[in-house]
Write a structure and sequence with these properties.
The protein is α/β, with parallel strands linked by helices. The protein contains 9 helices and 18 strands.
């Protein structure tokens, strides 16, 4: 089964809780605080693995959660950091954040990694809060929550050479003849429904990967037929072999087919439409007349295309085609990426939190700083609660809530915690 798209949820591990403890030793009266810090939570890391070919495993497992860091201990012992969770994906996988739509990573090399969710830092133990004003801190921080997000994974087949063309023009027959790949071949359209990779050996030490990709039809750039599934995989190829049926048995005009397919490529991606193409005129053994082949060959030659007349069943013409494809693979120079070096400046908001109204008439305060503060505060500890209230006042949250019209008894929601407002 070939799966080339998946949607997964990743949740990095929470940081371990800090420890609140005091020295309890003989002959050491009133020992000071010695609670250790919690350990860091596990990061979620995607790793490209050449031994994986599809995203099918993510059809059965869609959620990945990292371990929590170890809790701090007494005697200033820190908790153990959790081991990172590594999730293997096939080469050619792109990773997009679902909420923002931002492309996070493009994993194309074996062993390449990318951290998609960062584990939370461990909470500080009470020894960290000792100072001249508070010599006996009784509170410790909870661990910071790990990042959580939905990701969209998309696989684009990695191949040096891609076979381009309408359904049933003989792409599968060509790849069967020049490689050990065995795609299904039959006399009906869309025999190939998923990409097929074959290694083409030119000579000892000389080989390249060829991809037989599902056939293209008009409207593919709008997703009609196998549209986007096809075009997504063509993007990865360095050179394209444009296979055309020159026999005329199905009433097709190879020149017309050529232009229709290139129109779809241009609509989908300007970069894709500029890829090097070799013209492959297939089914020469089924020609109905002696004029078609010279006419079509001359047409493409006049436009500076290299033309190869082949018979995929007998192999006639394929050795020359393979040799020329290898030449372009060996001498391929990737286009330089266009880097936008313009510096953009964004105005920073006046506050580091946002207040909105919930459906239940509550006041929702959101912002990374305040949400982390609430999540890491032990609200059952009196000293920790006083520290939280002090930071609350420092951030002028009361004043901002009053501007929004909050009244005594109204609910305030921060993260997963709910508070009742009292002036």
């Amino acid at each position: 089964m070939f799966i080339d798209r998946a949607r997964i949820l990743v949740k990095a591990g929470d940081g371990g809780n800090g420890m609140s403890s005091f020295r309890r030793e003989k002959y050491v009266p009133q020992g000071g605080p010695n609670g250790g810090d919690g350990g860091k939570g596990a990061d979620i890391i995607l790793k490209a693995d050449r031994n994986i070919n599809t995203l099918v495993d993510f059809r059965y497992k869609r959620q990945f959660k990292g371990d929590t860091g170890g809790a701090g201990q007494s005697a200033n012992k820190h908790g153990r950091g959790a081991e990172n969770l590594i999730v293997s994906v096939p080469l050619g996988t792109t990773v997009t954040d679902e909420e923002s739509g931002k492309l996070m990573a493009d994993l194309v090399e074996d062993g390449q990694t990318y951290m998609v969710a960062k584990g939370g830092r461990g909470g500080r133990g009470n020894a960290r809060f000792q100072n001249s004003a508070n010599r006996v801190p009784t509170f410790a921080e909870k661990g910071e929550p790990g990042e959580e997000r939905w990701l969209n994974l998309e696989l684009k087949v990695l191949a040096d050479v891609g076979l381009l063309g309408y359904p049933s023009v003989g792409k599968s027959s060509i790849i069967r003849k020049v490689s050990s790949a065995k795609p299904e071949v039959a006399a009906y359209h869309f025999t190939t429904l998923t990409p097929v990779l074959g290694v083409v050996s030119v000579a000892p030490g000389k080989s390249f990967v060829m991809a037989d990709i599902p056939g293209l039809i008009e409207g593919a750039s709008e997703g009609i037929g196998l549209g986007h599934s096809f075009l997504r995989h063509v993007e990865r190829s360095n050179i394209l072999l444009h296979v055309l049926d020159v026999s005329g048995l199905e009433g097709r005009d190879p020149i017309e087919d050529f232009h229709k397919i290139n129109e779809e490529l241009a609509k989908y991606s300007e970069k894709l439409s500029k890829k090097k193409q070799l013209i492959v005129l297939n089914k020469t053994d089924l020609l109905q007349d002696e004029e078609t082949l010279p006419r079509v060959t001359k047409y493409f030659a006049d436009q500076d295309y290299e033309v190869f007349a082949v018979n995929a069943l007998t192999g006639e013409g394929l050795p020359a085609l393979v040799e020329r494809a290898w030449y372009y693979v060996e001498n391929y120079v990737p286009e330089p990426e266009v880097v936008d070096d313009t510096v953009y400046y964004e105005a920073k908001p006046d506050t580091d939190f946002v207040i909105t109204r919930g459906d239940d008439a509550s006041y929702i305060i959101s912002g990374s700083r305040i949400e982390k503060l609430v999540a890491m505060t032990n609200l059952d500890d009196e000293q920790a609660l006083r520290r939280f209230q002090k930071i609350w006042r420092y951030m002028d949250l009361d004043a901002e809530l009053k501007k929004r019209g909050i009244q005594d008894g109204d609910e305030v929601v921060i993260g997963e915690q709910r508070f009742t407002f009292h002036d």
